[in-house]
TrEMBL record:
Record pathway: One-carbon metabolism; tetrahydrofolate interconversion
Similarity section: Belongs to the tetrahydrofolate dehydrogenase/cyclohydrolase family.
UniProt organism field: Maritimibacter harenae
Enzyme Commission designation: 1.5.1.5, 3.5.4.9
Protein name in the entry: Bifunctional protein FolD
Length: 299
């Protein structure tokens, strides 16, 4: 048996089209154009690529994109001052500060300085607490994208056995909260989990978000399990000067022989992350203006 491929790239295009439709209605009916500010500190080439494609897709959805590229030596104080300015700018509905930040800047301090209502990454402690208690939050983009794919695949997630591999604040923990909210039985496995293969083998749903290339192999999976691969790892290039192959946290070749459905890398969760960033910016804009939230684009 070979698994069904869950086409995140195509699904993300649908999400972006829905966002664009809502944006055009917001403009026509209320004269509102959502705005997303992206802040990049330093010149990490991979980060620059993400920032560029985020900016492009933001504009394609009819929103305004504000890009702030700061020198790697920018002080924490100057970055906090920019965040404060964006918090108070009525044209900015969403703020994303690209992570990781340089070592001399306290990431938590910067994230928690963002107005929670504009925190489209959902990383602010207020949003984390709101999500954990089932209140209206801004939900982190990658877990939200995974949830959309799973809801589309299963309809209802109620009663499913879900194992999240990875416990990061960005993916693992919020993913577990979302699955719990949809009434899954949730286990978070990580580097210190005993008999991790046996734990993963229980799962109807496996979310791999550890950042270790091809760690989850086919023999870890229950037959028919649905596998969502969050990892984006670039392997060392075969020859000098070439680009290394992009792989997930799942060994696709062996996993796809056992899984019922699986997301590829690239073309799986990655495009959903950016689509959900746009969806969150739209949601933040609607909330800020006391308008009803877009259906199907929130958790
Ligand atoms: N505050 C913050 N929020 C983020 O959401 C955030 C961040 N910082 N720092 C960097 C990571 C990385 N990230 C990606 C999003 C989309 C793709 C994506 O669309 N990838 C394509 C392929 C890209 C390629 O070919 O290189 C795919 O998977 O198909 C990748 C990576 C968001 N991040």
């Amino acid at each position: 048996m070979t698994a069904q491929i869950i086409d995140g790239k195509a699904f993300a295009a649908e999400v972006r089209a829905k966002v664009a439709e809502h944006v055009s209605a917001l403009k026509a009916d209320h004269g509102i154009t959502p705005g997303l500010a992206v802040v990049l500190v330093g010149e990490d080439p991979a980060s620059q690529v993400y920032v560029r494609s985020k900016g492009k897709q933001t504009v394609e959805a009819g929103m305004e994109s504000f890009e702030h590229k700061l020198d790697v030596s920018t002080s924490e104080e100057d970055l906090l001052a920019l965040v404060d300015k964006l918090n108070n700018d009525p044209a900015v509905n969403g703020i994303l500060v690209q992570l990781p930040l340089p070592d001399h800047i306290d990431e938590e301090k910067v994230i928690n300085a963002i107005d929670p209502a504009k925190d489209v990454d959902g990383f602010h402690i207020s949003n984390v607490g709101l999500l954990a208690t089932g209140q209206k939050a801004m939900v982190p983009c990658t877990p939200l994208g995974c949830l959309m794919l799973l809801r589309d695949h299963f309809g209802s997630l109620s009663g499913k056995e879900a194992v999240v591999v990875g416990r990061s604040n960005i993916v693992g923990k919020p993913m577990a909260q979302l699955l719990l909210r949809d009434s899954c039985t949730v286990t978070i496995a990580h580097s210190r989990t005993k008999d991790i293969e046996e734990v993963v083998k229980r799962a109807d749903i496996v979310i791999a978000a550890v950042g270790r290339p091809e760690m989850v192999t086919g023999d870890w999976l229950k037959k028919g399990a649905v596998v969502i691969d969050v990892g984006i790892n670039r392997l060392p290039p075969a020859e000098e000067g070439a680009k290394g192959k992009l792989v997930g946290d799942v060994d696709f070749a062996s996993a796809s022989q056992v899984a019922g459905a699986i997301t590829p890398v690239p073309g799986g969760v990655g495009p959903m992350t950016i689509a959900c960033l746009l969806a969150n910016t739209l949601t933040a804009t609607c909330r800020a203006n006391g308008l009803p939230e877009p259906e199907g684009l929130t958790a």
